[in-house]
């Protein structure tokens, strides 16, 4: 489909780490994902480059409420846009204080550099989307597919035979392998694999990953993702059993991930850096440890 434009948000001055997607409809342009507020300048430039004004965006579809996907949605709401989100993400968009507090506990003084601020979106401009609910904008239908596993408030957006897979479709950058982004607090391997099975039944031609871009061979991509999710979770499991402090796991985990990337052709340090920026090892260690804790409690 040629009415999809991928906008590179150049997160932390790196190419192909975070995307937003401009969808041209007969009723004007829409966005799937906004990226963080820290990259709003690049997003506005990207929208203009495709011949629109940022204020033209009246519909914003979020895969989930993590800051690298939803952090700039409030700015579009201020220009009059409606923001579509899963019911479990709704309250955090309506009042982002808890979301920002927990992010600040993790990122501290890096908050502004990484994500920027977030303002509340009024209820009149927020729309909760249930599984398989659809919204029609002009000639284009957006279908919400509830796909938990990465986050409990995750939606993959389907347009015809194209799926915008948020993070449930994994991270794959510039021809490298697909890896599962596993930040806390919601990682659930069983739910994620159930979501993958659900996506496999959708008869898709292509997927667009927020990190980063188009995937044509959907089935083999998702099979790789599912296998790697298991292998990462199983790598963490003995450390959970042995109560290893997280700070002791991060380095060996990162080495395991890098070795896997290198084995799959990601040898350029810039390319390795893109993977780490999109999917930090420290986050995946924390998220997978939390998964095992919850499963064993
Ligand atoms: Zn993400």
Task: Give a verbal description of the structure.
- The chain has 297 residues and is of the alpha/beta class.
- It has a single domain (4-225), classed as 4-Layer Sandwich (Metallo-beta-lactamase, Chain A).
- It is built from eleven helices and twelve strands.
- The structure holds zinc ion.
- Zinc ion (ZN) is lined by residues 66, 68-69, 167, 181, 210-211.
- The site of zinc ion (ZN) has 7 residues, from helix 2.
Quick recap of the structure?
By secondary structure, this protein is an alpha/beta fold. The chain has helices at residues 40-49, 67-70, 73-78, 87-94, 97-107, 111-114, 189-200, 218-241, 246-263, 269-278, 281-296, and strands at residues 4-8, 19-25, 28-32, 59-61, 82-85, 126-128, 134-137, 140-146, 155-159, 162-164, 206-209, 213-215. The chain has a 6-stranded mixed β-sheet.
Task: Describe this protein with a few key phrases.
binds zinc ion; Metallo-beta-lactamase, Chain A; 6-stranded mixed sheet; 297 residues; alpha/beta; globular; 41% helix
